Amino acid sequence: MPFESDKIMFEIYREATYSGQYRVVYFTELQDHNKESEINRAMAGEHFYDGFIRAFKKDQAKETITQLLTRLNNGEKLTVDDVAETLKPYMPS
């Protein structure tokens, strides 16, 4: 049975600024020095997708999320379902 600490909560959002870039924030990995600013930045943006990834193989999951962000920022039209399907191998059961 996995523990709560075995998963990482994240959100993919689109910046509200003129750039409109897609970004990700890993909430459970924030430190005290950057927690407030990162959460405020995400909350000011347009929510796109959120969920959890398993801490096991988190580096592969983060690389996959980075690839999704690159695709989104290059103008590819991905749906929430596309993102969920791509991240399915990294999601907790």
Describe this structure in words.
By secondary structure, the protein is of the alpha+beta class. It has a 3-stranded antiparallel sheet with strand order 2-1-3, sandwiched between helices. The protein is built from 3 helices and 3 strands. The chain has one domain. Helices cover 37% and strands 24% of the residues.
Keywords, separated by commas or semicolons:
alpha+beta; globular; single chain; 93 residues; 24% strand; 3-stranded antiparallel beta sheet
Let me know the number of strands.
3
| Shape type | globular
The strand order across the widest sheet is 2-1-3
* Number of distinct helices: 3
Mean pLDDT, nearest integer?
91
**Number of structurally distinct domains:** 1
**Helices and strands, in N-to-C order?**
EEHEHH
Helix proportion:
25-40%
Radius of gyration: 13 Å
How would a textbook summarize the main sheet?
Answer: 3 strands, antiparallel
| Percent of residues in β-strands | 15-25%
- The rounded distance between the terminal residues' Cα atoms is 10 Å
Structural category = alpha+beta
* Unreliable parts: none
Q: How do the strands and helices of this protein lay out in sequence?
A:
Layout: E1 7-14, E2 22-26, H1 35-44, E3 46-54, H2 58-73, H3 80-87
Concise synopsis of the structure shown:
The chain is α+β, with helices and mostly antiparallel strands and 93 residues long. It has helices spanning 35-44, 58-73, 80-87; strands at 7-14, 22-26, 46-54. The N and C termini lie close together (10 Å).
